[in-house]
Structure formats: C-alpha cells, structure tokens
Amino acid sequence: MSSSSKLPGSDQPPKDVGYLDRLWKWGHHEDVLFDSRFEKFSIVHALLLSCVAFTLQREKDDSTFLYVVAVLGAVLGVIWLLVQIRSRRLLASLESEISELDPLYRKHISRGGVSQAKLMCIVPGVVVALWLLFALALYNRWVS
To answer: Considering Cα of 87, then 91, then 94, then 96, what sign does the dihedral take?
Structure first.
C-alpha cells in the first residue's frame, strides 16, 4: 500500500463512506450477543438455584450435592463475568469510535452516567459472591 493511501500520521487506510455503517452494524451485533449471553447465563443460574431450592426442601441431607452445585455456580459465574467484561470492553471501543465519527450519536446518546452494559457486568460478580457465600455456609455446616 502506498503512503498516499494512508491517513497522515497513521498506519490505517482512510475510512470510506460505508465505514460508519459497518461500525453501527458491528456494534449492534455485539450488543445483541452481549444481551443474549446475559440472558442465557441468567437462565442457567436460575436453574441451578431451583436445584438448590428443591434439594433444601427434602428431608435427606444432600450437602455434597449442594456443595457441588455451589462450586459449579461460582465457576460458571466467573466465566460469565469474564465474558461480559471482554464483551463490554469491545462495545466501549466501538462506542468510542462511533462517537468520534457520528456527531448525532455524540450529541444525543453518549451522555455518561451508569450504562446498562456496566450494570450487566456487575450482576455476574454479585452472582459469584452469592455462590461463594452459599458454598462457605455449606462448608461450615458440613464441618460442624
């Protein structure tokens, strides 16, 4: 590629007319994936909590099973947290680039505050903390 086809002071080629449109489409795609992953992980954790609730109602002591479910929930929660953080960083990068190129977005949408995506990254951390507290409570019950 010749130096005349690059942006001044950059290793990147100039942005063509459809670049902003492609950014918007990619951002929308990533946003849909972000929300979809959140929903699927939420459903899995709800099912695990249902297993715990039904097991606790039984008279038989199933502490081992509950402990395994708690550890599984914590591990899945950590995976969920890492996936959400990675996805949030990508979305923030796309958002930043769109904000630079689209004055309408910059003026009306990008206003600061706590975004939904940031909150959706906090929820997995809270879920992990709850599973770990539950596992700790089971362990203390098991030991005593």
So the answer is: negative
- The pTM of this model reads 0.76
Which residues have C-beta within 8 Å of that of residue 23, sequence separation ≥ 6?
94, 97, 98, 101
User: Average of pLDDT values for 133-137?
Assistant: 89
Q: Dihedral sign for Cα 49, 51, 57, 59, please.
A: negative
State the DSSP code for 60.
S
**CA atoms of 135 and 125, how far apart (whole Å):** 15
Give the integer Cα–Cα distance in Å for 134 and 67: 8
Indicate if the pLDDT at residue 128 is higher than 80. Answer: yes
User: What pLDDT, on a 0 to 100 scale, did the predictor assign at position 100?
Assistant: 83
CA 66, 68, 69, 73 dihedral sign is positive
Instruction: For residue range 66-103, list pLDDT tens digits in order.
Output: 889 999 999 999 999 999 999 989 988 888 888 888 88
